[in-house]
Design goal:
Length: about 850
């Protein structure tokens, strides 16, 4: 009998995963998702960021890039936080079997695997949490598990593939907490929590926050059933807290270095002030309205669909005759609390992990879906007499009516989906009641249950289908074509030039018609040194420096680098620029490939390391990017001739104050001068720049640059128009400057004449050798300052300063100077030590418990 039960448990768990995976593969084939067609679940940030990260990680796996340090991340930096947030899931090891042209197939397949595993872990939880016969409850275990695997959250957040690890780990964590309360085996909780944090610390953080709620819920339920005491509560609390702390310590090898890396940006700070805002974010009834096919979540309105009938099971148990009123109150509290976390700002802040969230507002809604499904299992099991059947039917009727009524009060969903959801509730409710209470033979009852199960599967699959329509896009073939062209472009540059340089570009794979883009991780994707980056763990020093150069900070993650500011690029060692249009001063060396960009050589690019005179000059503080560059050049070269000089202009503001025409007196010699402009704004609005009637870029908005390049055809004048729908520009602070290429060439010659004798630059290791005959020289290196670098000069700690509060300046001495920069991930060694000691301690404790158990068993036998 025990063996039969065990086989039944394994069968239900396995079947839940197999059915979930089969449904997804069928939907992928029908919808033409990879590998069956040109569509994919890679949308939004998945398309903007994650494809590039996966390509980068594939290089890491085959030894061509590094997690410790990469020059492909903005100006260079550690990728430990990028790895732990985006890439540390064990599923990503499957990348080794996919080429870069097959990343969409990899992505969709891993989504299907994670969702299937989520169904299996929920089944594992439900079967082991309840002391009920599996065979009698197999159908509800199976269906709720599939509902968990294919719930609204999982499909809607499939593009944020890294968060799905938290979904399949949650049931495993909560089962161990249930075991703590019930005094069952729980020793594996620290290992499960530690693994969850390693797989993705962000979603694991959500799991840990919810685990506290679950502990209180389970103990309250246990107290009702077993009459627990305050002493029991204190003991259980200590066990729970200590095990959760041990779980964090298990993950220390990755988690502690991640915290250290996040401290370099505002993303590493927590916003506790929001806890004081007691306001509400939306209206509770919207959660009912959104419980329909195809519904999507937005701030103040959450969608929690996980099966039409499951919500009826969950709500009906609150009204069942004969169920302990204390339990019904507790279940009501869990359901109510599961909604409150979306609508009350303090709880929203807590479950957002004390971070300001600008998108994907309900990243944690799967925990509420888990609660609904948990109570729905109980609701199905307790549906065991006709009085409760009447309550169940009434609940179904009331909920269906509420869906329709609320739509006509405030329509926020598609009406046909409202009626279809109500119809599905009615059909499934009828089948359940007939199957459980009609007087039919066993064969007929089994047919009814099969029909109910089939309708449930169609129900959950239909919702997934609706969401896939919304959360998928086509364009795999375009990606592959672009990828081929970009790989050829980078390969062409690398094969023709073995020097050290950076590459920049004015367009990326995803460029809107407005001239803007958020794809700034191609340096990582195609493994070249870059000046661009878009991650959740940026280095704010680098972003501030780029901002002062004219590449503006955008949000908390990136700088906008979709133009080429030649003075800034040259200083940073940008030798090649990829662009679909000509830029004054650059030399085209190759026509466009499949990526639509020509290769341009920057003849003024500085070496990545060169010496300069150590002067007392202190650059003036200015927010003008052109004057700031003038100051940097003056500091490095001690010359008085400016790189940038102002261009005369005349502004004619429109009568309504919205927009202006700007007449520029362009320099005479287009062969020696490049022209740039910047129009400071006070706040974002719908704005655009036109030059001589030609659209250049959207402006003063999300993703827009500040500095823009102005083509110079040696005209005496140039007409520029700024169109906007608001009075948002500072017309008195307009900036137009010409870059003197002759002066830039002079600076470049000086820098190249003072380049180091030998220089080797690898990810995480830089060596340089310089022979100097002076005592007042310093070495400039366009490598960003980072406390992870260990810098030595002739074997001793070097004396270092910074240029622009960002790039290294190293004091050198008369004679031979051998400089070594070695990068180490901060807190990595101590993190590994803590993890090893914690795991070792857990194993020792397990062995000791096993021995004590055996010794007690032996004593009983001898007696």
């Amino acid at each position: 009998m025990i063996l039969s039960q065990r086989k039944s448990k394994i069968g239900v768990i396995t079947l839940s995963g197999m059915i979930t995976f089969t449904i997804l593969i069928i939907l992928f084939a029908i919808k033409g998702l990879a590998p069956f067609g040109d569509r994919s679940l890679v949308v939004m940030d998945g398309d903007i960021q994650y494809l590039d990260f996966f390509s980068y990680y594939k290089d890491v796996l085959i030894g061509n890039n590094s997690i410790g340090y990469s020059f492909g991340k903005t100006l260079g930096g550690s990728n430990i936080a990028v790895f732990s947030y985006y890439l540390s899931s064990p599923f990503n090891l499957l990348l080794i079997f996919f080429g870069n042209a097959q990343l969409h197939t990899f992505f969709d397949l891993v989504v299907a695997l994670k969702l299937s595993l989520s169904a299996m872990t929920f089944a594992f939880f439900a079967i082991n949490r309840f002391d009920w016969e599996v065979n009698d409850n197999s159908i509800i275990y199976l269906l709720t598990s599939i509902g968990y695997g294919l719930c609204q959250y999982n499909i809607a957040q499939s593009s944020n593939i890294m968060w799905l690890d938290g979904v399949y780990m949650l049931p495993l964590i909560l089962l161990q907490i249930s075991n703590i309360v019930a005094h069952k085996k729980f020793w594996s909780l620290p290992l499960i929590v530690g693994s969850a944090i390693i797989f993705n610390w962000y979603s694991a953080g959500i799991d840990c926050v919810f685990s506290a709620v679950w502990f209180l819920f389970e103990f309250a339920l246990h107290s009702i059933e077993q009459k627990a005491t305050i002493k029991n509560f204190i003991q259980s609390t200590l066990i729970y807290v200590s095990n959760m702390i041990l779980g964090v310590l298990v993950s220390a090898a990755l988690f502690i270095p991640t915290i250290g890396a996040l401290k370099k940006s505002t993303r590493g700070s927590l916003h506790f002030g929001s806890l004081m805002d007691l306001s509400f974010l939306g209206e509770f009834p919207s959660a009912i309205q959104k419980y329909t096919y195809g519904a999507t979540s937005e701030l103040g309105s959450v969608a929690l669909f996980c099966g039409s009938i499951t919500i009826i099971f969950a709500m009906a148990v609150l009204f069942y005759h004969g169920v302990d009123i204390r339990k019904r109150i507790l279940f009501s509290g869990l359901l109510g609390g599961s909604l409150l976390i979306f609508y009350w700002n303090p709880l929203y802040t807590v479950f957002s992990l004390f971070q300001w969230v600008s998108s994907y507002h309900y990243r944690y809604s799967y925990v509420s879906i888990f609660s609904i499904l948990f109570i729905s299992v109980i609701g199905y099991h307790e549906l065991n007499d006709e009085k409760r059947a009447h309550r169940f039917f009434s609940t179904a009727l009331i909920f269906s009516s509420a869906l329709i009524f609320l739509y006509y009060c405030k329509p926020i969903n598609d009406l046909k989906y409202v009626y279809l959801t109500a119809l599905s509730i009615a059909l499934q409710s009828a089948l359940v009641l007939i199957a459980r209470f009609s007087k039919v033979n066993a064969f007929s009852r089994n047919i009814l249950f099969i029909a109910f199960g089939g309708l449930f599967l169609f129900d959950i699959a239909f919702n997934a289908n609706c969401l896939i329509n919304y959360y998928s896009i086509d364009g795999i073939s375009r990606y592959q074509s672009y990828r081929e062209g970009q790989e050829n472009t980078i390969s062409t540059i690398n094969s023709a030039d073995d020097s050290l340089y950076r590459i920049s570009q004015t367009t990326t794979r995803n460029m809107g018609d407005n001239g803007l883009t958020a794809n700034y991780n191609e340096g990582l994707s195609y493994n070249y040194a870059s000046i661009s980056g878009y991650t959740s763990s940026p280095d704010d020093n680098q972003r501030e420096f780029l901002n002062r150069l004219g590449y503006p900070i955008n949000g908390e993650n990136m700088c906008i680098t979709n133009t080429s500011i030649l003075g800034a690029d040259s200083l940073l060692g940008v030798k090649y620029i990829l662009s679909p249009y000509d830029i004054e001063g650059l030399v085209k060396i190759r026509e466009p490939d499949n990526n639509g960009k020509s290769i341009y050589l920057n003849p003024y690019a500085f070496p990545l390391a060169f010496t300069y005179k150590d002067t007392e000059y202190t650059p003036k503080n200015t927010t003008n990017p052109f004057e700031y560059q003038n100051e940097l050049y003056r500091q490095l070269f001690g010359l008085t001739e400016n790189l940038y000089t102002p261009v005369k202009y005349n502004v004619r503001v429109n009568d309504d104050g919205y927009g202006a025409q700007i007449q520029l007196d362009m320099p005479d010699d287009s062969s020696t001068l490049a022209v740039y402009g910047s129009v400071p704004w006070e706040y974002g609005a719908n704005s655009a720049i036109y030059i001589n009637g030609e659209f250049i870029t959207d402006y003063a908005c999300w993703l827009s640059p500040t500095v823009f390049y102005i083509p110079n055809d040696a005209n005496q004048s140039c007409e520029m128009e700024v169109k906007t729908d608001a009075d948002n520009f500072n017309w008195d602070m307009v900036q137009f400057y010409s870059l003197n290429l002759n002066v830039l060439s002079q600076y470049a010659k000086i820098a190249n004449s003072q380049r180091v004798d030998t220089l080797s630059v690898e990810n995480g290791l830089v060596t340089a050798s310089i022979s100097s005959t002076q005592d007042d020289e310093r070495l400039f290196m366009s490598i960003p300052v980072d406390d992870g670098w260990n810098i030595t000069l002739n074997g001793k700690k070097a004396e270092v300063e910074s240029i622009g509060d960002c790039l290294y300046s190293i004091k050198i001495t008369n004679g031979t100077n051998n400089i070594v920069l070695k990068y180490h991930i901060r807190y990595l060694k101590i993190g590994i030590l803590i993890s090893c000691m914690t795991v070792f301690g857990i194993i020792v404790m397990k062995i000791m418990r096993f021995k004590r158990k055996n010794s007690r068993s032996g004593e009983k036998k001898s007696i």
